[in-house]
Amino acid sequence: MIVKSIRQNPIRKPGGHFLIPTFFLLLCVAAPIFAADKYLEASQTGGIALLAPPPAPDSTEQAADLASARAVFHGRTADEETRARKDASLTLFNFTPAIGEFFQPGKLPKLEQFYQDLKPEIKEAITIPKNHWKRKRPYEIDSALLLGKPEPSFSYPSGHSAVGTIQSLLLAEIFPEKREAILAIGRNIGWDRVIIGKHFPTDVSAGRVLGQAIFRELMKSPAFQQNLAEAKAEVQAMRQIQLDKLEETKVSQ
User: Of 77, 116, 142, 202, which has the highest C-beta tally within 10 A?
Assistant: First the structure.
């Protein structure tokens, strides 16, 4: 070991003082830079190899994709737009309608922290293919599709679609009895991006594929599995408390 060698054979400075090698200091400073991701290795998130390229600019496929984006955008209802704007926040609590009103911020701190720890790795896995293909967003091609503020990242694959897929798969593991309703919301999070002109339909499809692939790799991580188990236990404990309170109410009546 490098550290052991240095301790056993320190460099003596003239005058009897020991000098810690500059290399060792640099190693200590650089260590966090080279630290492995908590759940994923960089090689596990290869969206470029996984996904097919988006339609080429000026191709008939691109024209069809744009026509579909226009049709969805201009055909949106007020309720769809409201939902899409809400879903854009990408909070886990977009899934409260499927899980139940008890699923609120601050109620499950371990689960919330678990997801916060996941976010940087998820973001990196999505950003790499976006920056590779550099696809323009629909409103950059047709300004009539601009709704709200422009977004700084590229269009393909849809990050919201990927994240919504990952969120839904994660929550479906924790609330398996609500699985279908949870997955439906995750799917809508992606499609809502077409509704408000932020993405092409093909962006959304690619985001779903990437999200499933990322989640599959996460499930292989022992650290992920451990934290997932802790989140499940937290939910079970909260439910038991709710049941105990319900029983106490029945007895008192």
Answer: 202
Output b/e per residue, 1-17; b: 16+ Cβ within 10 A: eeeeeeeeeeeeeeeee
Residue 24: CB atoms within 10 A of its CB come to 15
Q: How far apart are CA 133 and CA 216, in angstroms?
A: 23
Give the span between the Cα atoms of 72 and 65, in whole angstroms: 11
Smallest CA-to-CA distance from 73 within 135, 159, 157, 144 is with: 144
State how far the Cα of 159 lies from the Cα of 154, in Å rounded to an integer: 9
Angle between helices 201-218 and 60-74 (to 10 degrees): 90
> Whose structure tokens read 């191709």?
59
Q: Nearest 5 degrees, angle CA 19-CA 23-CA 26?
A: 110
Residue 235 has pLDDT above 70, yes or no: yes
Residue 108 region by backbone torsions, left for phi larger than 0, else alpha for psi between -120 and 50, else beta: beta
Q: What is the pLDDT of residues 95-154, one digit of tens each?
A: 999 999 999 999 999 999 999 999 999 999 999 999 999 999 999 999 999 999 999 999
| Burial letters 82-114, b for 16+ CB under 10 A, else e | ebbeebbeeebebbeebbeeebeeeebeebbeb
Q: What is the Cα–Cα distance from 22 to 27, expressed in whole angstroms?
A: 9
Helices 78-87 + 179-195 axis angle, to 10: 110
pTM of the model: 0.82
